[in-house]
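User: We ran a pulldown and think these components assemble together. Before we commit to crystallization trials, I'd like a predicted model of the whole complex to look at. Sequences follow.
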Amino acid sequence: MTINHHPSDETLLGYAAGTLPAGTRLVISVHVQGCSRCARDVGRFEAIGGQVLTEAPGTELSQDLLGRTLASLDRDDRSSGARGKAVFEAVRRPDGIILPRALSAYETIPWRWISPGIHLSRVKVQEDPDANVILLRVGANRLLPEHGHTGTEFTQVLTGSLIDGSKRLMPGDIMEASADLEHQPVAGPEGECICLAVVEGKLRIGGLIGRTVLSLVGL
Ligand SMILES: [Zn+2]
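Assistant: Here's a predicted model for the assembly, 219 residues in total across the polymer chains.
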């Protein structure tokens, strides 16, 4: 299985540098643990981090080192399809749901029904109780409520598929949606889709379903 949708370089750099908020860090860790390409890139970013620290920080040399490393990443297999190999390691929860191993230590609230075919669970992030990390279980062809957000939203597909505009996300793929995007993803036709998402900032979502979601996730 190959992975076609990855976090941005900025996000992977933040992950390697340890500067991402705890909720985002958790979702990105699930992606990185399941994606050979991003695991390799994070390893390189961590290596440059060490080099930049040993050189004088903020100097042209450091900037140049970062630029050269990003350029070398581009020269590699990224430009030829930008794929990663999926290395998904899963555990089965008591309720039968299969989750990546990175989530096994995290407490989750039981699935809550939010609308026909759509269930939501919240992942508790001890390091940051306000982090909005959720699991979504979406029936085949079910539309998620149309929404926007005040910050970046990351959605990692665990099982099934999710279609967002022209993008089709398969297991292992992640969607990084910037704050200005209003969108309404839909689960693929082949079966239930389970995904892990984090929203930085607030969700903007209308209607009864929206209010239910907001009250459940406390946004
Ligand atoms: Zn990746």
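Residues 162 and 187 are 4 Å apart (CA to CA). That may be worth checking against your pulldown data before setting up trials.

User: Thanks, that helps.
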